[in-house]
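Input/output pair, single chain:
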Amino acid sequence: MTFEMTANALTIHADEYLTLAMAAVLLLIGFSARKRIAVLEKYCIPAPVVGGFLFMLITWIGHVTGAFSVSFSNPFQSAFMLAFFTTVGLGASFSLLRKGGVLLVVYWLLCGIVSIVQNGIGVAVSAAIGLEAPYGLLASAISMIGGHGAALSYGNTFQEMGYQSAPLVGAAAATFGLISAVLIGGPLGRRLIEKHGLRPDDGDNFTSDVESVNAGTSEPLSGTDIMKNVAAILVSMAIGTMISAWIGRMIGMSFPSYVGAMFVALIVRNLNESLHFYRFDYPLVDKIGDVMLNMYLSLALMTLNLWELSGLIGGVFVVVFCQVAFMILTAYFVAFRILGKNYDAAVMCAGLCGHGLGATPSAIVNMTAVNERYGMSRRAMMIVPIVGAFLVDIIYQPTTIWFIRMFVQEFTG
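Output:
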């Protein structure tokens, strides 16, 4: 860490290790605050959000007053996200995916339709208020479902087409989406559960199947066993990123690295069930995934600059506000009914708000917060990550490219 005085303002430069340590401490503060502040627990506000928002407020005060600023070195954030999705893949046995059945397909199609409507909202609202179509699309499915990575990728593409503010608009829209996602998902799930008196179905065969397939062994793991499980995660991450890069070159645009990692991990898990390469331990992998997810979101929120949301002033903010309103109404009035009007449906709606506005990690954090308060929905925790991580891309990516060709390229031609 270094300190520098610039124009009577203190600039604090945090290296990667201090940044990582701060994120861990803020995460623990978030967990502690949730236990002590009843309203946070009541409305299912995730722990990383509590600690991250606290620090965002501090840095915002420093920016507004001009007294100080903090710069971060943050190379670990993407690695944590990649590791989290890899653990999701390792937790997906084909036998369980088949049991997801119709509900998985319904949720997948629902998410695909949501992404198409989001792009439609972006184009329609942009046309109504006189905003250029690329900026409207950047405030739609690209940044809402795709998150910061997709916003940067498409933003750079639009910038090359002549829309110079595209990267900033995409980043600001993704930031606002992330904040909205983690603030509304938990409370919305809570509202559905409380209003309809929902509780987890203890007699659900799916839950017992999950516990049976993913049960840990009674014998303690040796150091070698733990290392083999960690090695499986790391190898899946490495091979998955190479596959994603290859796919990206094939399609001529950036392809999310976590999709490849999750797919490879899924293959590793299911091959291991037949060939028994190593002693797979789901409870260990699941705990590693929880740590990776919480650290990822803590880093993501801690390093956000609230003042950059000023880029949303004007027409882009109108588009994003419409997206948030659409997601709340869709999850509460439509998705809950389509998904079965039960406890699993309520938790999945909390997840839908997460990855429909702030990418898939936000969905998992939202659902985890609800599960911690009301009980585990294993069906939701299996279906939502898989759909949000890569199945929805099967619909969202091609349709987004279609919108770009229809409403952007004609303007630049």
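Residues 2-412 form a domain with the Na+/H+ antiporter like fold fold (CATH 1.20.1530). Residues 94-129 form the longest helix (36 residues).
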